[in-house]
Amino acid sequence: MKKYKTLLYYCYSTIADGEQFAADHLKFCKSLNLVGRIIVANEGLNGTVSGEAEACHVYMDTLHADPRFAGIDFKVDDVAEPSFVKMHVRYKSEIVHSGLRDPNIINPEQKTGIHLEAKDFLAMKDRDDVVVLDVRSNYEHSVGRFKNAVTLDIENFRDFPSKINELAQYKDKKIITYCTGGIKCEKASALLLHEGFTDVYQLHGGIIKYGKEAGGEDFEGKCYVFDNRLTVDVNAVNPVIISTCYNCGTTTAKMINCANPECNEHFTQCDACGEALEGCCSDACKQHPRKRIYDGTGYYVKVPQQVSPLKLSRKAIISTSATANAE
């Protein structure tokens, strides 16, 4: 039995003082020796945390004991080692950035698409009157997606609203949205309903839960995840690899971040090109003076950016001004 677990979860539930909650929650996570990344907003939580099995159980029990988070559906993976190096809890305006903050348009607590469990999704997905819609970014669906799914050319989820007109051709169909864990679908399906789509569904728990409950059937490739694993296997029924090496075109499912921190592009790269380019996407990035050491994984702990002299001088001016005003 593996010693560690990784938990993926989200919850749309109003938090009165999200900023204070984030500070307190960071202390709580550190007290359990957890590592991970959690986004807190006044609209709820979005997190992936990892640590020893007992600590993860305490974490889940504690959140479930809070009425605001009692309904959290944790996706749990057994892992050989923690999936992060550090613990970060950030307060932001949204738990998944859509750029749409008008609660009259997007409010997952009040209105979303119909949630489909894995078995129901499996039964519906190949029907002629159904469109399966991937609402994730390019680098995510490039490494793995459902067979025959409609994908969108978007760099970030905040680009999704601009693609609504492209989807108008499917207004007479049943639309089933899906994403990694379900969080993006809550807002995507709500926006589709607002824009006049009438038959809107979403895969409850996303790709990860579908893999656990339906064996991942017809999910082609791997699923991108937001931790140091980068991708995980989903399909135990009829797996295939659909992605190719960015540099040479060889079939590969391996996804990495460019070793040049100023590029940091997500891309698929075979081991041979990874060795030749030292984990970079191009020769130009390979020559970059700040290039990180490639260890074969393509995952890097975030390196703080250098502070420019201009920024330091501005801070000094602001500090001096504040001191003078105080006196």
UniProtKB/TrEMBL annotation:
**Which GO terms fall under biological process for this protein?**
tRNA modification
- Domain Rhodanese: where? 126-219
Write down the top EC class of this protein. Answer: oxidoreductase
Reply yes or no: does the keyword tRNA processing apply: yes
Superkingdom is Bacteria
Annotated GO molecular function terms are: oxidoreductase activity, acting on paired donors, with incorporation or reduction of molecular oxygen
Provide the E.C. number(s) assigned to this enzyme. 1.14.-.-
Ordered alphabetically, the record's keywords are: Oxidoreductase, tRNA processing
Q: Which NCBIfam families match?
A: PRK00142.1-3 (NF001135)
Concerning its family, UniProt says:
Belongs to the TrhO family.
Function statement: Catalyzes oxygen-dependent 5-hydroxyuridine (ho5U) modification at position 34 in tRNAs.
Q: Name the chain's protein.
A: tRNA uridine(34) hydroxylase
* Organism of origin: Mucilaginibacter gracilis
| Gene designation | trhO
